[in-house]
Amino acid sequence: MPRMLDVSDDVRAEIGDEEADRLLAGESAPGSYDCTSCRTPGDCEQERTSTVLFIGDETAVLAFAHAGCLPSQVVKVTEEQLQGAVRSISADQASRPEQQRPAAPEQAPEQAVLGVTSGLVLIAGELHPALVVEPTAPIARPGAVGAGDDFLPLLIEQGFMPVTELAATPSVLHGWSVLLAMGQLHAVLQPGTDGGRPVAWWQAHQPLQVTEGWRTAANKHQQVLMFAAPVGSIGRQPREDLLRDALDKAAARGQLVAAALPLAGT
What we know:
Blueprint: E1 5-6, H1 9-15, H2 17-24, E2 32-34, E3 41-43, E4 49-55, E5 60-66, E6 73-76, H3 79-90, E7 99-100, E8 114-123, E9 126-135, H4 151-158, E10 161-162, E11 177-181, E12 184-190, E13 199-209, H5 212-221, E14 223-228, H6 240-252, E15 257-264
Parallel strand pairs: 1-4, 4-6, 9-14, 11-15
Antiparallel strand pairs: 2-3, 4-5, 7-8, 8-9, 10-15, 11-12, 12-13, 14-15
Helix pairs in contact: 1-2
């Protein structure tokens, strides 16, 4: 029985026509698989299946996903993140999705991890889906001497804007996006170098669960507000009202940047 595989032009360009044709002919594609997005079983003989190619600095891994979860695509990640993707695909290791290494090499000289918290934020009488990002240690600029923290300046250079109060939604930062598939958070993407395909700035080794209200707001607005603050500014807040209070205080201290990121994927 023929495989119901989707192989995008980008994936074909990376793996070559010969391997792509072997996949489509069923010679090298598995009949059954665990979806790299929703982690539930799939069968490429029975349902449309996407090929997803993870490319690291030195290696690449071909994974499979339900076509309804993710389109066939190339996802460029760091070598460390590729190993995390391998663990996610094989389910050999479970790790907390809220604590992941920053994807951008310039933000990981001390191997700090990013705390990512999802919540609804009320702005101008309307609820917006938000991600609050706070590293667990100061982020130094490459080549910097000393123990300075350049996390916010690095983000401002990328287009994030300082926020002094949460009175209006931040501007859209084009080129960045939030990958939400099957109602779960997978990654925050940033523009690739020289206008190339987007790469993961932060990527969950396992999809991050979000609330139904958060998903509904994200689908309504088709974007997610991302707030970022330096280590020690926000903390792990157990409730959305406490999270909002921490955001307001960080903004008043000049320790908050933000942007609206469009949704990517499905």
